[in-house]
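Dear colleague,

Following up on yesterday's call, I've attached the two folding results inline so they're easy to grep. Please treat them as preliminary; we haven't cross-checked anything against experimental data yet. The first protein's sequence and structure tokens come first.
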Amino acid sequence: MIKIISFLLFLALSATCFAGVISVVGPGTSPAVADTFTINIQGTGIVDLYAFQFDLSFDPTLLAANATTQGTLLAGSGGFLPGVIDNISGDITFIADTLSGLVSGVTGDGTLAAISFTALAPGTSAITLNNFIFLDSNLTDITETIENGIVTVAEIAMPEPPAVLLFCVGLLPFISKRRLLIRISQSFRTTGSSDEAPA
């Protein structure tokens, strides 16, 4: 009896140890406002994955979702669903994929899905996976570790004006006055002094 309990405990611990990791992987560098970039949902150490589903949330004041495409992990399955994008609430609901037929699930590493975004404003947005379900080839739940992520949209850097430009801008009032003085002087040269005594 003790041996049976020990064996079952070993199986439970083994299942925990071999649980895969699902992580949100952002761009390598911070995007600027108006940049388009991709967020990958990466699977690492996946064992016998047959189907999955998840929702994704983000800050709609900073990001706008454009499209969701199938990842490499279940590529060619024919069962990919890109989900429904709502850029008002900041959600993509029911991103899903499934294999078909009586086949084993996929084991290994790869992306589950890739989501294209456009940066709207500077700031940091959490990228969070919700309502996730992972099934093996027996359509039994798989427990995966979820690692959410963030995306930071860079502040807009305003370049410093060149020193020469600042110097010229500073001279503008003086240049205008000089031109005015030249015009008055040229007028006096052709018509005579304004202080000339009457005949």
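Below is the second protein, in the same order (sequence, then structure):
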Amino acid sequence: MIRKRIHKDFDAVIVINRAGAPIDISEYEVLSVKIQGRNTISDIQEWEIKDGKIFLHVSRELIKRDGEHCFVVEYRKADPQLEDGYWNFQDNSPSFMIVKRTEDEDDDNLTISIDLTEVIRGERGYSAYEAAVQNGYVGGEDEWIASLKGEQGIQGIQGVQGERGLQGEMGLQGVQGEKGDKGADGITPQISFSINENNELIYTVIT
């Protein structure tokens, strides 16, 4: 493990390898370079890209304590087919040691290779909408989502009639209604009987 002394500036070069070969980092947009230790992480402000590599200067103020450290590189590559327009990456370098004594440190120059050959990391895949665009869909995402709604299905078969429920309990007897008004007196008819000359009974009603 490479060793650098605490409280001392040093320079470093970061090379990112993918599939056994170095990538040209100038083809990417580097967002940040950090140095990370135990419970500490600091942004490195002094860095530049040259010959497809990242050259940086680590000032003594960024190293808070001794122990294992590594570099963290965040970068991205544009892809207009993606929803946010970028492939995003974050890679950590192999660890190096920050030591306290001068006699324990290595040469001032430090070259770190981030080898992704042994790291199986899937890149961000297309969303369903992005895949549809890749296959020829033309339109906005909201329109595409609306297009996923299918037509209304046919009405289902009527279900079997349920069993007759149990008879409910008898309700309480209602309150007795008020007594109605007395009706008007009726008319008593006058009835008379007689026998005619043909010996027939004749009755007459007079109202």
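For the second protein, one point worth flagging: Confidence is low (pLDDT under 50) at residues 117-122.

Best wishes,
A.L.
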